[in-house]
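User: I'm writing a short report section on ligand binding and want a predicted complex to refer to. Could you take this sequence and NAP and write out the structure as tokens? A short remark afterwards would be nice.
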Amino acid sequence: MTLARLAAGAGHHVVLSNSRGPETLVEPVRELGPLASAATSEEAAAAGDIVVVTVPVSAFPHVPAAPLAGKTVIDTCNYGPERDGRIPELDGTSLTSSELLLRYVPDALLVKAFNNIFFKHLLSLARPAGASDRSCLPIAGDWAPAKAAVTEFVESIGYGVVDAGTLADSWRQATGTPVWGAPYGPYSNEKGRPAGEDAIRTALAAATR
Ligand SMILES: NC(=O)c1ccc[n+]([C@@H]2O[C@H](COP(=O)([O-])OP(=O)(O)OC[C@H]3O[C@@H](n4cnc5c(N)ncnc54)[C@H](OP(=O)(O)O)[C@@H]3O)[C@@H](O)[C@H]2O)c1
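Assistant: Sure. The structure tokens for the complex follow:
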């Protein structure tokens, strides 16, 4: 919802979906204003130039693959065994959660983004281009045109971008890594703390596994 709010605020059309159906999204659509609508997951996936998948990792098998073929798809998701249950492939170091999602949507042009920032910080740290305290977000993906499209989108909603490599490299921004949450300050401070390019690059470089 926070991403939808920022996107609509930047002039993008937004189509929301969830697991329960568009009739349950009347209030968020009203709140977002005239650029927003609601649809089924299949319809929302078909509608977007850029589609955001932001669900529990345990719901990956339900993400509709066909309408995402050939599309730029942002994966914001984090694996958390306490919520998702144990997923053996993700308990080792052989696979990132984005690579797991790609198994379910094999023809999508997946880009990992937004997974490392608390939603309240995402809202409060957005700044216009050129602001001295504009924050950066890492993105990772295997397709340069999709990364370019996501970069343009991220920049339009108030952030700079740091290229964090491929989907296989995206472990560097996964749950618990130095770039995950901490650069933007503690959750207890809803305003967050701006984190620019250097801070994000340093945190990515400090990741270990
Ligand atoms: N919260 C954060 O600050 C934050 C920050 C960065 C990344 N993330 C990651 O982003 C993802 C979403 O987080 P969240 O906090 O937004 O979770 P959330 O509040 O639990 O929302 C999950 C959304 O996914 C929908 N969903 C679940 N299963 C679905 C399915 N089979 N088909 C369609 N939609 C489905 C839910 O719809 P229903 O409500 O209808 O079930 C709900 O709208 C997670 O992987 C999380 O780790 C969260």
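A remark for your report: The longest strand covers residues 136-141. The first helix runs from residue 2 to 9.
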